[in-house]
Request: fold
Amino acid sequence: MDNRSAGEMFTSTVSIDGRVALVRLAGELDLHGAEQLAAAAQALPLDELDGVAVDAGSLTFIDSAGLHAMLTLRHECEQNGIDMRLTAVSAPLERVMAMAGVEELLRGRD
Amino acid sequence: MLTAPFRHEAFLYAGHDDFVAGALAFLAAPLAVSRPALVMTDGPKLALLRAALGERAAAVDFADMAIVGRNPARIIPAWAAFAEANHGAGPLWGIGEPVWPGRSPAELDECRHHEVLLNLAFSDSAFHLLCPYDVAALEPSVVDDVWASHPRVSPPSPRSDNGASGDAAHDVVDSASLLAEALPEPPADATVIGSDLDDLHGLRCHVQRVAAASGLAAGETDDLVLAVDEVATNSLCYGGGAREVLSWVDAGAVVCEVRDGGRVTDPLVGRRRPPPDQLGGRGLWIANQLCDLVQVRSSDAGTVVRLHKRPALVASV
Reply:
């Protein structure tokens, strides 16, 4: 079913640097990508981390299902008493965050 | 007698002078008690009203309804934001003119729904809303509809059949009936652009091709692609039965329609801004921010969501 180019396929790449998880999101984060991100988030050892840094600078598309997955990850971090920080934001993410009114929530206030 | 806190009144006027006189009379109350008032109508009438108010204009908020209300489903959130910003210190006043000459039949349908839905959205709010209708410029059938959505119409009706007299309110249409209204059938040349909605990527590519070929600018195409994706995702998550996406062009607007066997029951769906900490449930809200018109209809036969996107700049020929 899928004839997407590499730039369109959703990928989430996780690396652990000390007690911080770096999550790099790329491609199209829709309902199907959201399921992948939820699975990747599930595998994070949140109770052993100080924080999660999300690089969303390479997301070429995101909708509210994708935003839901990011908000869920943020919520799970909060439950574990750690911060989720966005280190890079692409234009499509910027647009959806603004429409949903979650910019402050996801970016943090600093 | 029990009075509902929400006072929703249509104001039938003829021409600009009549509008300004009626608006000034209505605004006298909030100005006298230093309460917030927001006026949303077209630019020329805003300018006339500001001039007539003089120094008092500083105490009133103004917004261009041609922008706020381009999609009528964005007007209730605008009033809700006004109410939220001025919460807690007594009643609020507003003037909102959602209907103007040149609105398409589909837009007029959604304006009529909007007017009925205001009664539901603000039933518990101490909010006085005046909705001006220009009887000199609008079709009589459009003006006739105001009695079905506004419990009060001023000046008092010359009609004898609506039961209203003086300041008494009359009954209006129940908002629960709106979703069951039928939409006009898609035209014969409508194209099926998706049936396997599970391939969201493929659907987005298809919408992009149709939108670009129909003259939408790049940003407008992105808007429609995201809106269709949102509605198709809702259909995948909540809608059952056979799913289908159709597309056609209607008077310069690109129209995409998502059909499924599911059921939508909230008449205000897509008209309440979800709180930031809510995890999901934003699909139709986002579609309303992106499109010029979003028509939702639902019954036992299934759900139809029709999305309209017009090019902002139409090349003159």
Remarks:
- Chain B touches chain A through 25 residues (CB under 8 Å).
- The first strand of chain B starts at residue 6 and ends at 13.
